[in-house]
Specification:
Length: 123
């Protein structure tokens, strides 16, 4: 069985190259550059590009600009945990469009991981 699966029936998160995103705390107009990794339909990891204005319990919007998609994807989420400047976020109230686009991003990341060849160290 592939190591893409963890415990039976549970998928591991896709590990794409970090996606450049913007985050916006609910109630604030400031958009903060950040990175999104460990992406699933349930959430992911957010790392602000500089500083860490995030706290557990904060609600925020994650803005993802996708090539070929005119309007950015805006996902509402809540910060569930924070360690060393990386926050685990849980998505909520995803639209059908959001789900479709996230599934495409995840599928692309999984395909890239399958097609990647291991690198060799040269002595």
């Amino acid at each position: 069985m592939s190591d893409e699966l963890g415990p039976p029936g549970k998928r591991r998160p896709a590990r794409p190259q970090p996606l450049p995103i913007e985050i916006q705390l609910v109630g604030s107009e400031e958009k903060i550059p950040a990175w999104l990794t460990e992406l699933t339909l349930a959430g992911g990891l957010v790392e602000p590009a500089k500083g860490n204005p995030l706290e557990v319990g904060n609600r925020l919007r994650v803005v993802i600009r996708v090539i070929g998609v005119e309007e950015p994807v805006v996902i509402r989420c809540i910060i569930r945990w924070d360690r060393r400047g990386v926050a685990g976020v849980q998505f909520f109230k995803l639209s059908e469009r959001d789900v479709r686009i996230l599934m495409e991003i995840i599928a692309d990341a999984e395909a890239s991981a399958r097609n990647a060849r291991p690198t060799r160290r040269i002595a």
